[in-house]
Design brief:
By secondary structure, the chain is of the alpha/beta class. It is built from seven helices and ten strands. It has a domain of 175 residues: 3-Layer(aba) Sandwich (Rossmann fold), CATH 3.40.50. The structure holds adenosine-5'-triphosphate and magnesium ion. The site of adenosine-5'-triphosphate has 12 residues, from strand 1, strand 2 and helix 1.
């Protein structure tokens, strides 16, 4: 426990950097970054294509490893884990949501959502019960037996979110979850993520290009060329996004 009232961060990043060697060049995808994300925050990372957003998200969720720096996520020093331990840790602590839903086409909504529970000791009846509960949370209890191909994009993303929460993870990590949705479905998904924070205290880390997200999140971080912008640079980037959105985001309370 900490000695004061400051909560322990769900994500603590210290000097984390990542570079890729590709053919002759060396791409510095992420310059050394330090950052804390506190429990129950809904955080967005924004920035141009290639600025390192997915690289950072993959490192936070233990899909990728940094070349430098240390990383404490959901109570675990990820640097200390080997590949198997990392996979097991991820299954228990992180719920992943992707741009293109990544559902299994031959499984019903219920079975897609129950899938992460196969790694637990729960019996089939309990897995089904939890999958149905998760689908109820995302408003899809009337679509339990539907296959992904018979669901709209917005509904498929709801199934994917149900799959991400079914293990009751500490952290939900979403890479452009509204990137493949129309405006109305995008708002619905952002609102659903906000609801997971509000109702269940989930910590959510999201990458997005969507200026609509500004109305739903607690904190926005801007990346540019692998650098986390701070101070005036960050304010300028935020202002540019609000301007692009027609100035109607920003301000106002959270839904
Ligand atoms: N596996 C890889 N091998 C080589 N270079 C990579 C690899 N993954 C990412 N990169 C490079 O690292 C940089 C950051 O990539 P990243 O995918 O994090 O960007 P991004 O901000 O998520 O972009 P986008 O908005 O297009 O998804 C880019 O220059 C990219 O080309
Ligand atoms: Mg990306």
């Amino acid at each position: 426990m900490s000695t004061d009232d400051t909560p322990i961060p769900v994500v603590a990043i210290r000097g984390v950097a990542r570079h890729y060697v590709r053919a002759a060049d060396d791409v510095q995808a992420l310059r050394p970054i330090s950052l804390d994300i506190l429990p129950g925050r809904f955080v967005a990372f924004m920035g141009p294509s290639g600025s390192g957003k997915s690289t950072l998200l993959n490192i936070i969720s233990g899909i990728d490893r940094p070349d430098e720096g240390a990383l404490l996520v959901a109570g675990e020093m990820l640097n200390d884990l080997d590949e198997d331990e990392l996979a097991e840790w991820r299954a228990r602590h992180v719920g992943l949501v992707f741009q293109f839903f990544n559902l299994i086409p031959v499984l019903s909504a219920r079975d897609n959502v129950a899938l992460p529970l196969l790694l637990t000791k729960l019996d089939r009846a309990e897995r089904t019960r939890r999958a149905e509960t998760a689908l109820r949370v995302v408003g899809l209890d009337h679509r339990l037996d539907h296959y992904p191909g018979t669901l709209s994009g917005g509904e498929q993303q709801r199934v994917a979110i149900a799959r991400a929460i079914v293990t009751d993870p500490d952290l939900i990590v979403a890479d452009e979850p509204t990137g493949d949705l129309d405006a109305r479905n995008a708002e619905d998904i952002l609102s659903l993520l906000r609801q997971l924070k509000n109702d269940f205290g989930k910590t959510i880390v999201m990458v997005t290009h969507d200026p609509r997200a500004l109305r739903f999140v607690d904190d926005v971080y801007h990346l540019d060329k692998g650098i986390l912008l701070e101070g005036e640079d960050a304010e300028r980037a935020g202002a540019a996004i609000r301007m692009a959105a027609g100035g109607h985001v920003g301000g106002g309370g959270h839904p």
